[in-house]
Amino acid sequence: MTTQQLPGIVLGTRYASEFPELAVPWKAAEAASPTLLALNEPLAAELGLDAAYLRSDEGVRLLAGNHVPEGATPVAQAYAGHQFGGYSPRLGDGRALLMGELADGRDLHLKGSGRTPFARGGDGLAAVGPMLREYLISEAMHALGVDTTRSLAVVATGNTVLRETPLPGAVLARVADSHLRVGTFQYARSMDDDELLRRLADHAIARHHPHAADSANPYLELFGSVLRAQADLVAQWMLIGFIHGVMNTDNTTISGETIDYGPCAFMEEFDPATVFSSIDAQGRYAYANQPPIMQWNLARFAETLVPLIDPDQDEAVRLLTEALGTFPARYQQAWTAGMRDKLGLAEGVPDGAATDLIDELSRLLSATRADFTGFFHALTAAAGGDSAPVRDLVGSLADGWLATWRALDPSVARMAEVNPVYIPRNHLVEEALNAATAGDPGPFEKLLVVVTRPYTQRPGLERYAAPAPPGAAAHVTYCGT
Ligand code: AMP
Ligand code: MG
């Protein structure tokens, strides 16, 4: 079949036309020889996109940004952001493009598509390894039930990207509810144009939190909705040991989706101070800091909304401060509910007893540094009567705790539903990406199949459920990939 006979893609220009102040029409860099490395067929089907078209020459050129469907207006989006606590007034898509909106209203966005006016010192490019990494981890997150941007495809460009060594270049095509970030609001607020700010807030309400429109104070309700979505999101991260690694305000979405998989990684040995990113020497974005950092990012969001909340600035600040103060309780509620499920506790177990059990478990895990995912998987077996795997991990230390927990009659079925067997373990991810970079896609494809069905234990996959072999070097991740 020729490309002409296949249905192409229609892309909307809603953002580009509604926010010319926040978007620069731009073109992707030419890919020398675009080749499809990964295509998410289930996601394509969900989006009503024809996989055969996406695999065609024109489809692959579209996924690399080099074919622009008629009527589309790809743009680089402007945003600001606090990076590691310091404010940058102008970041923006330095190496990314919003291609447009798909039929269901979601964004089709490319990463690694060349320099834009926001590129600053960067080359605008991305290498195969990091783009496959985002694909793998975002799809694993989705399978783990976490709200996230999705990955539609990775295309090798055929161009070389210079990092410490020359690497093969790639473009990631991702799909998101939108690419509005706290940093988008910071940028709009810095333009001192309340009408623009209001339009942006209305756009965010319409796309992500439509019920806020009917509230007595829609913009205060927008803030509350984002806060609740982000509190619940961070609780989901914490419950699976996910460490984002670069929780800057430009990487904090208004939709409540996880975005930008750069230096992220999953905690293996339980240690609340775990940090993988090479540039995060202070541990700002360490595992245990994620909830307070999210609240800090939401405070930056609140600051941008002041002009919309109340004509009296003091009253606006009071209302926003009060709303911001609800974050810890909301987070705690989501965390506790999630932990109750992980422990298989029935609804009848009083919150006080559950909280004591959870706190004691945190101390136990800290003391033993047990593998976080492995421990809950072993505990699922213990709920079914086999305590040997838990003993293997923590010895007799857990005996007292186990007795208290067992007396609550935990549900094996509930535990098996929420405690994953397979997560993208760092050494397996590295192994898969190194092979793919060297031209062998096999290990990546295998790992993707494993981590996108995380709760179903399958024979022959033991190695994917096990921690890194002893003596493996500590995992380090890098920004600016
Ligand atoms: P990130 O930490 O990946 O969210 O990126 C932070 C900012 O740096 C964003 O404005 C990116 O567009 C920009 N950026 C990251 N890498 C590059 C690159 N290689 N070239 C141009 N801009 C980049
Ligand atoms: Mg980013």
Helix-strand string: HEEHHHEEEEEHEEHHHEEHHHHHHHHHHH
**Portion in strands:** 5-15%
Biggest sheet statistics = 5 strands, antiparallel
- Please bin the fraction of helical residues: 40-55%
- Supply the helix-strand structural class: alpha+beta
Radius of gyration: 23 Å
Listed once per kind, the bound small molecules are:
adenosine monophosphate, magnesium ion
Widest β-sheet, arrangement of strands: 2-8-9-7-6
Low-confidence parts lasting 5 or more residues at pLDDT below 50?
Answer: none
> Which of globular, elongated, flat, extended, rod-shaped describes the shape?
globular
- The pLDDT mean sits at 96
Count of extended strands: 11
Separate helix tally:
19
The end-to-end span amounts to: 38 Å
Outline the secondary-structure elements.
Elements: H1 14-18, E1 23-25, E2 35-39, H2 41-46, H3 51-55, H4 57-63, E3 75-77, E4 81-83, E5 86-88, E6 96-101, E7 107-111, H5 128-143, E8 150-162, E9 166-176, H6 182-190, H7 194-208, H8 218-240, E10 242-243, E11 265-266, H9 290-309, H10 313-324, H11 327-342, H12 351-368, H13 372-383, H14 388-394, H15 399-406, H16 412-418, H17 426-437, H18 442-451, H19 462-465
Antiparallel strand pairs: 1-3, 2-8, 4-5, 6-7, 7-9, 8-9, 10-11
Helix pairs in contact: 5-17, 5-18, 6-9, 8-9, 8-10, 8-11, 9-10, 13-14, 17-18
Bound molecules: adenosine monophosphate (AMP) and magnesium ion (MG).
